[in-house]
Amino acid sequence: MASLLDIQNLTLTAAGQPLVHNLSLALNPGERLGLIGESGSGKSLTALASIGLLPPAITATGSITLGGTQVLGAPERTLNRLRGTVAATVFQEPLTALDPLMKIGRQVAEPLARRAHRDGANIDLNREVTALLEAVALPDPGRIISAYPHEISGGQRQRVAIAMALACRPQLLIADEPTTALDVTTQAEILTLLDRLVRERNMALLFISHDLPVVAKIVDRVVVLQRGEAVEAGPVAEIFAAPAHPYTQSLVAAARRFDAALEAAP
Ligand SMILES: Nc1ncnc2c1ncn2[C@@H]1O[C@H](COP(=O)(O)OP(=O)(O)OP(=O)(O)O)[C@@H](O)[C@H]1O
Ligand SMILES: [Mg+2]
Predict the structure, then answer these.
(1) Whose CA is nearest to atom 25 of ligand 1?
(2) Which domains are seen in the chain, by residue range?
(3) Sequence-distant (≥ 6) Cβ neighbours of residue 203 within 8 angstroms
């Protein structure tokens, strides 16, 4: 089976400094992979590189293909064809995905209209916007449609960002710390939502986090990054049971301590 996302020997450099070094990972249709590592280990840069959105200061070597198309060095026209349809992204801070001056309904309608145009389809935009907001379990879509981003909660904004990512029916969802900015209860709700949507829509998932227990809930396999290098990779259960690298061992030990503290709490 051809990989949906195939990263081979990716090295990212800024001003001669390597930020990601010789990273390889592949994701087949329907697979779920976690990319885990401490702050600054290169997770977000890897996500950005995958959809051709690297900051100009960063140089990339190696290869990244999305749906068989080379991303590194590709013209904007090619990248626009891939973005949203092959891969869509959800980021940590939902406000970055949203225009503060535009009502939610119009923002969600934009990618839907693009998809309809691409498919040559005639769609009832209002109905599709409502259906998409319902799919991400937003209460009272009627109110949300005519609200501005600042008029809804952080968890609701992240649901809107997820709805926009789903609008073009991507084969791969890249979620970069999608729950980190949210409180614990909302975090759990968004994780459950992502888990359900990925299953229902047969998407592949690249889930990025510094939080091993969160990643373990939603993916099957993980790649552990430390200072830009993959130090360990394998099925979540195996890595949890027997982490081989000292850095992974420290992540697992920290997760266990956290669990033990929760159990000991009155
Ligand atoms: N535009 C840039 N120019 C130069 N260096 C950058 C740039 N963007 C990021 N970096 C550096 O690249 C490294 C990796 O950054 P990245 O954002 O990928 O980390 P991360 O693993 O996503 O961390 P976090 O968990 O904090 O989000 C960091 O050392 C960062 O300072
Ligand atoms: Mg990051």
Answers:
(1) 39
(2) 5-264 (3.40.50.300)
(3) 30, 170, 171, 172, 173, 197
